[in-house]
Design a protein that fits this description.
GO molecular function: lipid-linked peptidoglycan transporter activity; peptidoglycan glycosyltransferase activity
Helix content: 55-70%
Distance between the termini: 77 Å
Order of helices and strands: HHHHEEEHHHHHHHHHHH
Largest sheet: 3 strands, antiparallel
GO biological process, one term: peptidoglycan biosynthetic process
Strand content: under 5%
Subcellular location: Cell membrane
Function: Peptidoglycan polymerase that is essential for cell division.
Keywords: Cell cycle, Cell division, Cell membrane, Cell shape, Cell wall biogenesis/degradation, Glycosyltransferase, Membrane, Peptidoglycan synthesis, Transferase, Transmembrane, Transmembrane helix
Structural class: mainly alpha
Number of strands: 3
Number of helices: 15
């Protein structure tokens, strides 16, 4: 008899490892898997962000206010507010988001108009994209991102039967996009404009828009983007710095890029340790904001940088689960919008720090310093959690958990005396 030849896949060691892996991943079949993936990844990013904001801002905070904790304290307050907003939002039924879409869109456009009003609008680093009311400074474009996501998702879900006809399904969403992008561009914020445009494209793709439409939109971008770049000296210098013209570190657009590279190189593989950054000593501009990833790489090294990337991948995977498992067009398109918003903005921010993309001045979601950005991103996380609670079996599982805890506590022995 001829002996049967076994492949390496049939070996006992491989089979045993495969069974262990399947056992460990079995929890992904739980109806609460998506909920906890979103909650865990977002929570860890916020926690890491608070630690790194404290480290990256301590020197400049002390120089400005004689306290190394001033910027961290503000960020911590906004984080608490954002967590409360996310918690309340996660308990809302889906119909509430449909009802709030249009009022929130109107409010976002109104606040974006206020950016151009003297005495209310504030210019920061060449971009006029803020309003100051009393002692509170708000970035209306962050509200606009969430408002646009809900508004476009509502329109496309209501016109689902007409997706084959762009004039009846997609055209009604164009005025909201054009108004929001136009108002943002009045403030010269090209980075946020790009993020909003990509969010819109991602939602159209998820909704099933015709591929020919994306060809026309790509052609439009190829025409308008160079014009937007070459009509601004600041943007032109950043493009030139990105293309490699940084032999002199003091050239426009080069200083921040070069010192970001110094931070990453100085950290090496394992990093200098928490709080040990050298570049945060007033060398690297916006170390606690747009370039916080450089400080993460400098202090926490490659493991810290890869951890951040992994958390965004987990969040993207959780959003994909929502998109793939739901039959509700509103949930599907809105989840895609939030996923594209957070993940694309993270990709652009990290790519800018690494020199893969030009520096466009967008923060790292959930991590960078910025109150309105953090609160609105956590609002978006709350929306995702609300969607995840509506998955089959999720609501029932969450309802049973407190009962299980109560039963467990009831059988614990009581202490005497």
């Amino acid at each position: 008899m001829t002996a049967t030849r076994l492949s390496w896949r049939d070996s006992p060691a491989v089979q045993g490892a495969s069974r262990q892996l399947r056992g460990r991943l079995k929890w992904l079949e739980s109806p609460l898997a998506t909920y906890y993936l979103i909650l865990g990844s977002a929570g860890m990013l916020v926690g890491l962000g608070l630690v790194m904001v404290l480290s990256a801002s301590s020197v400049t905070s002390y120089m400005d206010t004689q306290s190394p904790y001033s910027d961290f304290t503000k960020q911590a307050v906004f984080a608490v507010v954002g967590v409360i907003v996310a918690t309340v939002t996660s308990r809302l039924p889906i119909r509430v988001f449909k009802v709030m879409a249009f009022p929130l869109m109107l409010a976002a456009l109104f606040l974006q108009v206020l950016v151009m009003v003297p005495g209310i609008g504030v210019e920061v680093l060449g971009n006029r994209n803020w309003i100051r009311v009393g002692g509170l400074q708000i970035q209306p474009s962050e509200i606009g991102k969430v408002a646009l996501i809900l508004m476009v998702a509502l329109v496309l879900s209501n016109r689902q039967a007409y997706l084959h006809d762009p004039r009846r399904s997609i055209l009604p969403t164009v005025p909201y996009v054009v108004l929001l992008i136009g108002l943002i561009m009045l403030g010269k914020d090209l980075g946020t404009t790009m993020v909003v445009a990509v969010i819109y494209l991602g939602m159209l793709w998820c909704a099933g828009a015709r591929k020919a439409l994306f060809g026309w939109l790509a052609a439009l971008a190829l025409v308008t983007l160079p014009i937007a770049v070459w009509t601004s000296g600041n943007r032109t210098s950043r493009i030139q710095a990105w293309l490699g013209g940084c032999d002199n570190v003091d050239l426009d657009g080069c200083y921040q890029k070069v010192h970001g590279m110094y931070a990453l190189a100085g950290g090496g593989v394992w990093g200098l340790g928490p709080g040990a950054s050298r570049e945060k000593w007033q060398w690297l501009p916006e170390a606690h904001n747009d370039f916080i990833f450089a400080i993460i790489g400098e202090e926490l090294g490659l493991p810290g940088a890869l951890t951040v990337l992994a958390l965004y991948v987990v969040l993207a995977y959780a959003c994909y689960r929502l998109i793939a498992q739901t039959r509700d067009m509103f949930v599907r398109v809105a989840s895609a919008g939030i996923m594209v918003w957070i993940c694309f903005q993270a990709m652009v921010n990290i790519g800018s720090v690494l020199g893969i993309f030009p520096i466009v001045g967008v923060p790292l979601p959930l991590v960078s310093y910025g109150g309105s950005a953090l609160v609105m991103t956590l609002f978006g996380i709350g929306i995702l959690l609300a969607f995840a609670r509506q998955e089959p079996g999720a609501a029932e599982a969450l309802t049973l958990k407190p009962r299980r805890v109560a039963r467990t506590l009831a059988v614990l022995p009581r202490r005497k005396g």
